[in-house]
User: Fold this.
Amino acid sequence: MRVRHLSLSHFRNYDRLDLDLSPRVTVLYGDNAQGKSNLLEAIFYLATTRSFRAGNDRELLGWTLPDNLLSFTRIAAQVERDHEPLDIEFVLRQEIGRPDDPTAPPVFSKRIKLNDIPRRSIDVIGMTTAVMFSPQDLEIVDGAPLLRRRYLDVTISQADRTYCRGLTHYNRVILQRNHLLRTIRDRGASADQLHFWNQEMVSAGSLVTARRLATIRQLGEISQRFYQDLSGSEEMLTIRYKSSIFSGAAMIPDDAGEIASAFTTRLGDVQARDVSMGVSLVGPHRDDLTFQIDGHDLNTFGSRGQQRTAALALKLAEAEHLARQTGERPILLLDDVLSELDARRRARVLAFIQGDQQVLLTTTDRAALEGLLPPDTVWLQVQRGRLIDSTLSSFPLSES
Ligand code: ATP
Ligand code: MG
Assistant:
């Protein structure tokens, strides 16, 4: 899996970029605020159809377009997947006002093409697979449950489009059901209709739960090995899926059928509370992950270093997991992570990226990385949304 060519128009601070990418390691270096992370963001967007930091697609549109009535951004790439070339293109447009009505609200549209054929987001997710490493990964361990669910959903969706479809459906069901719960509460509507929505919720939600459980079981196992290797310790990292359907239960079945019957029972138990709160209190949209070191909760008792190492182990495990699931190594995007690591962890990560896969990494300190990366590494300097290839000048063919 790799991106051969990337083409950007009006994407953040890139007015225009056309770049052939090395199948191996590329370093993007330069001062702060030049566009290093923006470039990784564009590649991550191709894989997941979402940004790793923008809350909203509109943020991606470049500010510099002369005509501010119509702004747009285009992210296009030729990727290589199963040794076949594939063209992916996103065009996001925002039109402010219309010729006939300048006060009309802005209209935002997103157009996606695969090999020149219009597609939906869901058809594109996972066409490229990528794993992003960034200093914000720590939030997966110490942030809000929502961030952990989102992380898990993006990871699973990349390898499994059925999951992505099931999840989208489940989220719609929750919206409808919550609406109904409030109608019952506020306007005394009959609770009969809940039966239908409960069935929908159980059938979609059980699949989502089963898939997350299976993924966490695998990711947890691989993370454990990476954690010990990164830390050079015998400490045991345990990652568990905490299901609101099985609150308090030590063992959770992996079978979707068993999950479904437990889910149905739980919905019955909480129905009165669901109605009085006007929201669905149980289901995968309320679930979480827990991290433990030697049986102690990492969030409460872990040191900063342990938390960071766990987040890094999880990301490395994700790359391994995606490779096993798809049969191809994902693209690794390392945003400013090496500088934060101590020598041992840095050496482990560098050993990991020596494999046969595409890697893009960013740094402000080029000198710190010189000599640590493979000899065929491409060095690109990023300066105000432009790239300068300095590979040859930095590696003159000298004696040796
Ligand atoms: P650092 O080393 O600090 O992480 P960086 O090189 O990774 O820096 P980026 O985050 O890639 O920097 O780019 C930041 C620059 O992009 C800033 O100058 C910011 O003003 C600009 N920028 C962000 N969003 C947009 C946008 N929508 N349109 C134009 N420019 C933008
Ligand atoms: Mg950055």
Notes: The chain is about 40% helix and 25% strand.
